[in-house]
Amino acid sequence: MIGMASIQLTETEIEAATRVLRSGALRQGNECNAFEQEFAEKTGAKFAVTNANGSAALHLAYMAFIEPGDEVLVPSFTFIATGSMVTAAGGVPVFCDVEKDTFLIDIEDAERRLTPKTKAIAPVHLFGNPCDIDRIMQFARKHNLIVVWDAAQAHGAVYKGKDIGSFGDFVCYSFYPSKNMFVGEGGMTCTNNAEYENKLKFLRTHGQTGKYYHTMMGLNYRMTDVEAAIGREQLKRLDSMLAIRKRNAEILNSGLSAIDGIRPQKITSDSESAWHQYCIIVDPDQFGCNRDSLSQRLKEKGIASGIHYPRGLHQQPIFQELYGTTVLPVTEHLAGNILAIPVHHGLSENEAETIVEAIITSKP
Asked: At what angle do helices 81-88 and 54-63 cross, to 10 degrees?
């Protein structure tokens, strides 16, 4: 079976984790400090702050500025944490539609949803595809909004020659096992603001600003040194992993471009995707069968696929209960027709070509 992800530690990464385990210094310490410095250098951010996971990274960012009732503009087509962590921080996520080609937040729709309570916007570099950062930053400046970039799937993505981690107020990463970089669980929040960096570090340790001295409400969102040691080693090979993903994506693009009824995600201009996922929209009228039928046919040929995501956040029962119902047509269309196929760095060229052939021969 050609799987959806490559989850395997190298011997060097295993040795790094073992070294920390043998040292007995397991909690957040020197390894986390070094990982923060190296990640900041890699992305071009002034500061990077380790934390427990990608959801924690978002939660800490929101906690750093949200007051009760503040609204945050959130694309509906994303993983639940982008929105739920707004709620957890005391804010209100306001769900926006996305662009049909890039799958990224629709700024025109977001502008229609502005209110006097709007405090921030949380654009998602979905599947590793960078947002139009210039346009979003102009929008944020125009309306005096804080920007929390959800980069959980975008390690190493580039916009106009710069790493996406170097932009904006907060850039939040996840190191979950399915991500381009993984440590087991773990997260990172980048920022260019020294005040925010300080606050994030206090918030992740129960608001402690001195030993047993707490000046704000916080949480235990620390990363362990074992995870940081793995992350430091993974960071060294991130570029090589991304190069393989890019090669695989190019094979898929070339092979699928001429198939009626198959539309891959459009990559933002002047950008380099991190290719966390390779997603296609299946038009059942043109292709001859729907997304679910194609997924089943690929499974029969030994190829895994996934649905990211089967519903928008505005369609999640908990958000409908909290905030009522709304209609976001593009998000709903994507949710009903999207299919993710393998593109990861464990995939060989032959396997990428096999996937293309399998989709071609699945067309009725």
From this structure: 40
Q: How many CA atoms lie within 13 A of 102 on its CB side?
A: 23
Please list the residues that pair with 48 across neighbouring strands.
190
Give the model confidence (pLDDT) of 57-80 as tens digits.
999 999 999 999 999 999 999 999
Contacts of 348 (CB under 8 A, 6+ apart): none
Q: Computed from CA positions of residues 49, 52, 58, 62, in that sequence, does the dihedral angle turn out positive or negative?
A: negative
Distance CA 54, CA 124 (A): 13
| Chain segment 346-359, per-residue pLDDT in tens | 999 999 999 999 99
DSSP code at position 266:
P
pLDDT of residue 6: 87
Paired tokens of 296: 């089943």
Do residues 342 and 41 touch, judged by C-beta distance below 8 A?
A: no
Domains, the chain, in order of start with CATH, read 11-236 (3.40.640.10), 238-362 (3.90.1150.10)
Q: Kindly tell me if the per-residue pLDDT of 258 is higher than 90.
A: no
